[in-house]
Amino acid sequence: MYFNFETKKAKIYTIITQQQDGYLHGVAVKRMPDNTIYVQKGKYTTCDDEHPHYYLAMTRAKVVPNDKVITGPSYFVLVDVPLYPLMIPFGLFPSSSHRSSGIIVPTYGEENSRGFFFRDGGYYFAINDYVDVTLIGSIFTYGSWEAGARSNYMKRYQFSGNMDFRYSINKLGDPLLPDYSEATAYSIRWTHTQDPKFKPNQTFSASVNYTNSSYRKNNTTNLNDAMVNTTQSSISFSQRFVGTPISLSIAATHSHNTRDSIVNLGLPSMSINVARITPFKKKDRVGAAKWYESIGMPLSISLENKITAKEYELKDLDNVARTKMRNGLRYNTSMSVPFNVLKFINLTPSISYNGRVYLSHYERKWVDTSHVAAYPRGGYMHIDTIGIFHGDGLKGLSHDYDFSTSVSASTRIYGMFQFRDKFPVQAIRHVISPSVGVSWRPDFSDRLPFLPNSEWGMYNNLTTMPDNYVVRDANGDIVRYSVNEGAIYSTAGRGKSASMSMSLGNTLEMKVRDKKDTTGTGSKKIKLLEALNFSASYNFLADSMRLSTISFSARTTLPGNLGINLTGTLDPYALNEQGRPIARWQYKDKGLVRLTRVSTSIGYSFNRTEVYKHEEQYAAIRALDPQGVYDGLHFSYVDFSVPWNFSFSYSFAYSKPGWVENITQTLNFNGDFSLTPKWKISGQSGWDFKAGKISSSSFSLHRDLHCWEMRFTWIPMGSWQSWNFGINVKSAMLKDLKYDKQQSRYDQMPDY
Q1: Which of 19, 21, 39, 22 lies closest to 30 in space, CA to CA?
Q2: Which among 192, 140, 137, 193 is positioned nearest to 166, based on CA atoms?
Q3: How far apart are CA 585 and CA 579, in angstroms?
Q4: Radius of gyration of the CA atoms of the chain, in A
Q5: pTM as predicted
Q6: Each residue of 341-392: pLDDT tens digit?
């Protein structure tokens, strides 16, 4: 190296310098006073190896630090093999630490259904350090096209998010043939996350994924996205008012089932919650608290607007909003007084009130007179067979309400069994948590109990049109209907209710000696059964079959953090010949109860880290005795140097409400392992027990080529059958230096 202290110029031979993600090799290099570098017989590459695996051989080049690299005539060299056909007369490579705008090179290929294509080409706009915008598009020779825009934004310590919008027209097949189809597809995705420290008492978040069925069918290239049948979205805002028990939340929601094309929109919903208030509690109390000081009253108010419609109906959103929107306001409060009885029983009497306000309600008339005949019952009309009665138009504001009272009691019972001193298990503890509750609710479709001429106001008598006769059923009872039937919050219940709820919880724990404790006195707890719960109810006012079905659930964790959950239902009543429950106890036929439903799910992951836990236990022994023999014991050592990961999930569901049973089983698994530090194989698959065949599967092979990488992805079966092979440079600066070959799922479609 030669350096002139007067001119501040330097000449260097055989130099390697880094420029952002790239490396510049030069045989002869001149450095100017402004740090500009001139290179003769140089190499430009993103490979950090001293002898790069690939490079762009340059006759001459100019490097402006933190700005760009400009080259003269150059050619590509791969593994020391010059590829002269890949020659360029000049080149310009950005070398800046800041983002810059630029062209996005599209991918190209061919599909049987849409022809040759250029996909996802466009332009990237680096607007500033907080936001960027990408405009992309795709075009197909058979007339299909797609346009989209995506943006990322972030403000440090405040919020971050991204948006993605796609719109496409898919023209499949030959327009002259009957199989030709044309469909509009669109997709909207938006995520927004707020930093929790930005505004602790105020949050705003968004997770929007609105995709119509056509886009999922014709534009999705990801197998996991295609397997999802339901998409959901939510935009929410919440505010907690400091110094008060009041909090506010506002949300807009969306769900879309692609199987039946049903869309549910919540536009919007709002709720105001007031935490439990104890108005009689003394701030400066001295001594024990009085029973009335524990009286608490929470309050909740919610307002909702919902639309449920088919996907195609949303094209006329104004008509859907007028005809299918349901809305209402709901408020509820309760008052409870918890206290102890006999020191061990927690008794809680309570009363709850629920109110609902609707902007409209229905008045209904019986207009189908084919089933109505005159009957001498004092001027009333009598119907032998009740048909469908029709609404008589929307009416004005409606108030709907109900209330109930209840008393609940709960306690805990402890059982302990202790073992001998030298036994590994010290004790087993069983905890039983029984609870009983009694509730009562009046019949809101009947008249007031103490005012025979007055009504609750939520049910009316059904009358005929136009004679206005009161309609009775076959038993001579007046037919009544709810004016708020089908409303968003439903309506007050019919019939009196006096019921008792019962539940029984169980936990089982074991206390064992801790072998790691050197004092010999240590112990640890192991949960044998985290939960075993039963629940049922009994209706005192029912004519028959007063006992409800019995629900049960169990939860435990096996060694290795293998969690198992089990839920089910038992029916105490027998079935008739048609497979319907009747008022006869099941134990009189066969068995004590009938198992009508049970389901369980198991999931677990294995990886190299878990295996090493076992290996570490013998690390000291191996150090003392490499041959595997220590203190008369023999050990088998295995080399677990290959990283791997495997996980599976299994679900089982059984149902038999009548004589016909239904069993559903699914098994899914995925994993990966490294053959060498450079080779990795991964895949996912499953087994459909009902169909008796393998479910959707995918496999991939990845090869780390230092500065390059190679990947192969294969979906061997099903409607998403496809494969993709690609080799590319790792560096994002030269991400378009690649080779791709693929056969997409759209190539499996037949030629038209």
Answers
A1: 39
A2: 137
A3: 15
A4: 37
A5: 0.66
A6: 888 899 999 999 999 999 888 777 776 555 444 443 333 444 443 434 444 4
